[in-house]
Specification:
Number of strands: 15
Oligomer: single chain
Number of helices: 14
Distance between the termini: 22 Å
Radius of gyration: 21 Å
Strand order of the largest sheet: 2-10-9-6-5-3-4
Bound molecules: pyridoxal-5'-phosphate
Strand content: 15-25%
Length: about 375
């Protein structure tokens, strides 16, 4: 394999030493450790948020946020381009997913479609910033405010993406992040939640700490699960967070190289209007309409040429097509025809090719892979 989209976090001996030094300061190793507190404090500072709650995964972050914002039976707006974990969290919280379309050339919500789907049963909108690209803008915030809808951002892939509204994951009411190995802040497994709301923070902290009630200083008053992060992961998180900006810088240089070598009439790059700094999670390319090849077909050919992409690995589909969610993708709300129900997402997904740009992708490999891409597009 010349290029593999599967990211294995890079840990330098210095980082490992730094992590061990932090761990040595820990009073205890479990979720109430001084190291976890320090990690949460650093997260608050970096993202300029009032509350940060470290948790055991991104899925746990989403689940705890949903449990704290909806009642069973409430409807939750979810983008049709997202990951199964987003939907799982909704279902586990007893919510009913209502799928919405994106715009023609970005992951921002298609506002007319959104407005059509808003009823009094809709309590939450989840935005998902796929591959580090934004999924919220001012108009979406205004619309949600008008209908009293809480916004939960699934910023698992967009840590460090900066937009004209601030850091992705700090724009809505609650931001959920993953620190799984593949993500930019890699702690192996893990996640965190950001919010400025005292009441959401208290509910979420309680739920993720087995229902511990801060006012009562006791268990047994609230329901909850053990979603705590350990001091081991938090120590890694502290060093990873300190390196985030450097990592983003390196990744953006790879993006620049991909763009230089592939910028021609057949391949376009996803618009990053309103993005001050993309975090370099991945580069989303859009094939020209005139091409007789879909993103998935090109990705399959690239795989034969030693380039593994998210497009090949995850089969480029929209989530309502997964068998498990078919039950929610039914009449009378939907026709069942993807191109009628979600014309923009269906089109976007079919022409999309997602290219890896993490630290292990070398410039030489990008050069070699770009030759393959150009050859395949010609032929
Ligand atoms: C990774 C990811 C998650 C889930 O995070 P885990 O830490 O693996 O549970 C949720 N949403 C998106 C968009 C992700 O990429």
């Amino acid at each position: 394999m010349i290029i593999d989209c599967v990211y294995k976090a890079v840990r330098t001996p210095m980082e490992i030493q730094h992590t061990m030094d932090i761990l040595n300061t820990a009073d205890i190793l479990s979720g109430d450790s001084s190291v976890v507190n320090l990690y949460e404090k650093n997260l608050c500072e970096y993202f300029n948020k009032k509350h940060a709650i470290a948790v055991s995964s991104g899925t746990a972050a989403l689940h705890a946020s949903l449990v704290s914002t909806i009642k069973p039976g409430d409807q939750v707006l979810v983008p049709v381009i997202c990951v199964p974990m987003t939907i799982s969290a909704v279902l586990q919280a007893g919510g009913i997913p209502i799928f919405y379309d994106c715009r023609t050339d970005s992951f921002l919500p298609d506002l007319p479609d959104l407005e059509k789907k808003i009823t009094t049963s809709v309590k939450v909108l989840i935005s998902v910033s796929m591959w580090g690209y934004r999924s919220l803008d001012k108009d979406t915030l205004t619309l949600c405010k008008k209908y009293g809808i809480t916004i939960i951002e699934d910023a698992a892939q967009s840590a460090g993406t900066l937009t004209d509204l601030g850091y992705d994951g700090t724009i809505g009411d609650i931001g959920c992040f993953s620190t799984h190995e593949f993500k930019l802040i890699s702690t192996g497994e893990g996640g965190f939640i950001l919010t400025d709301s005292d009441s959401y923070a208290e509910k979420i902290r309680s739920f993720t700490h087995i229902g511990f009630s801060e006012p009562h200083k006791s268990f047994g008053y609230h329901d909850g699960l053990n979603y705590k992060l350990s001091a081991f992961q938090a120590a890694t998180g502290i060093t990873q967070l300190a390196n985030l900006d450097t990592k983003i810088h390196v990744r953006n240089s790879k993006i620049t190289l991909w763009m230089q070598l592939n910028g021609n009439s057949q391949l376009h790059f996803m618009q990053d209007q309103g993005i001050t700094r993309h975090n370099g999670y991945s580069l989303c390319c859009l094939l020209d309409e005139l091409n007789n090849i879909t993103g998935r077909e090109l990705a399959a050919k690239l795989y034969e040429n030693g380039v593994n992409t998210d497009t090949y690995r995850y089969k480029n589909t929209i989530v309502c097509n997964y068998p498990l969610y078919k039950h929610f993708y039914s009449q009378p709300n939907y026709t069942g025809d993807n191109s009628q129900d979600f014309p923009n997402a269906t089109n976007l997904v079919s022409k999309m090719l997602v290219l890896p740009c993490h630290e292990r992708v070398t410039d030489g490999a990008i050069t070699q892979a770009s030759l393959s891409i150009q050859r395949l597009l010609k032929g």
